[in-house]
Amino acid sequence: MAQPSPIEELVGFLASPRQEIRMIACGNLVGYSSGPQNSIFKPPGLKPIRDLKILVRDHPAISANAVTILMNVSDDTAVLEQLANDDSFLELLLSLITNPSYPGADGIAMLLSNMAKHDSIPEKLLRLKRDKPKPEWNVSNSENAMDQLMDLFVKGSEKTLNKQADFDYLSYLFADITRHAEGRKHFVEAQEYDNVIPLTKLIVFTEHKSLIRRKGVASTIKNALFDIQSHPTLISESEVNILPYLLLPLMGSEEYPDEESLDMPSEVQLLPPDKERESDKSIVSTHLESIMLLTTTREVRDTLREKQVYPIIREVHLALEDDTVRDVCERLVNVLKREEADDSTQGAARVEEDDQIVDLA
């Protein structure tokens, strides 16, 4: 029988009764949790995973390292299954992420995002009611898990709730939740908690300084727009008014003739001369795909034409030498510039939904 390697022996110390030993073992093992070498955490029976779940309840420093390891190994199907099917573990993660003094809150946001690749997690989060966070924490006044997570994302964006967390990766969780019909419904309908449509809270971050936040929000918007029935509400200036938040990231410092610019949404007129277009081409592509989804119905296509969306798409096509971006631009132009023969609808091609696994070495 082969002798265990020193690293495998170190994994065994995760279950040590002595806290100082657990702390040393967990801290030293973080670096082995990404890449092929993380197989040390996945022997038959997955005992190290069970030990790590217990360590999440340990000293905050041990807990944060255990969360990082679990996040890095959660792309394994067997590990994901064990994590996703443990309701008490999900509650533990929620209790920690809503605690403003917990140092590993961003790690939990990443872990929750990865766990949401399991179809059961979005359903659980959408229906889960739990204790409200302590009032003095100023986190949330709702007993719904989704409301609490949204409040964390909005209120904590500048580390104003937790000095060690910005909750940006919750946007990836929201993107995964909106891959499901029930999740899309949640984000496009006003919630009883505050009578606000959740997507309204997210769209204001399409030009945020954080690339992670912008990416996750863009994907959440795109996925939510597969709920075609919500388009009139989302496009309405008196309700969600989503269009300016999709267009602004696409726009640079270019100038438009008055006959074009005066009909554009007021929010995108008279932009400063130093206005910069979104630098990440994958986000540009995602926003273009969102607009493509909005062309599904004749009603909204007419609105996009009235709001002079075409000239903006034209400038994106001219400015960016990227095959994916230009392909979506060309498809959009074909839809927006064509003659409408009748009131039939134009089916929008489904685009790939965000299924990125977050990995932190």
Automatic annotation (TrEMBL):
It comes from the Eukaryota. It holds the Pfam family DUF384. This is Protein HGH1 homolog. SUPFAM superfamilies: ARM repeat. Belongs to the HGH1 family. Residues 97-284 form the Protein HGH1 N-terminal domain. Residues 290-343 form the Protein HGH1 C-terminal domain. Residues 352-361 have a biased composition (Acidic residues). InterPro entries: ARM-like, ARM-type_fold, Hgh1, Protein_HGH1_C, Protein_HGH1_N. Residues 339-361 are annotated as: Disordered.
